[in-house]
Amino acid sequence: MTTNVAQVSNATYQDVSRANQVYGEVFRYTFEYVYGSHIPGAVAEFGCYEGFSALMLADLITEFNAQDDFYTKIFPRHLYVYDSFSGFPKSVNPVDSISYEVADSGYWRENEDASPPGTEDMLRQEFTRRFGETGWSVVPGMFEESLVKQPVKHEVAIANLDCDLYSSSVEVLDHLLGNKLMPDGAVLLLDDYNCNRANPRFGMRRAMRECFARTDGFYEYSEFLRYGWHGRAFFVHRTGDSINPDA
């Protein structure tokens, strides 16, 4: 049986039609921008739960790659999916341990939102069906280990971060930005930007601020889109290399 987005649950919305509306719109806008602007690089997702957004991203890669009569320059789009498949790690980071989603609601407690058994195998089967044996990677494990053992090896044009915790977001952002993996104009999709009551001391808001500051001005960011009650998309700007006339 073929697995599609409509058959897979989304952690943010119980109503699948609403999830399709929210993510379908922001992902499509992002692909239209990236393909229309001829931005090279892979598509990478960090945190996939049951695979809802991963399958949607895979389908969009297939759809947009087929439009070579419209987009005059199409770059190879390797698809990366990183996930522990066992839910959240224990929140030992002092920022996370006092955050609303950990200390108050308890929703981001250890092992919460673990992927159903068989999710990793399902994604491998579905990606093989869409792309063949190459052009994609499913990397299991906690980010602090998986990004070391199997790091991202391509530039990344679109990065979808659904890793919730501050500590996990820092691990991903430091990997992408510290290794200069995002080309000028790339897009960061932050699924949990407004979690923790949108308080800038916690979660992705704090991670973005601190991780970009660590690039010493090589990278900056500006807002692109807002989606649902929770998400925010940003353009990534490389200001520290020769492509910028003011660098």
UniProtKB/TrEMBL annotation:
<dbReference type="InterPro" id="IPR029063">
    <property type="entry name" value="SAM-dependent_MTases_sf"/>
</dbReference>
<protein>
    <recommendedName>
        <fullName>Methyltransferase</fullName>
    </recommendedName>
</protein>
<dbReference type="InterPro" id="IPR008884">
    <property type="entry name" value="TylF_MeTrfase"/>
</dbReference>
<dbReference type="Pfam" id="PF05711">
    <property type="entry name" value="TylF"/>
</dbReference>
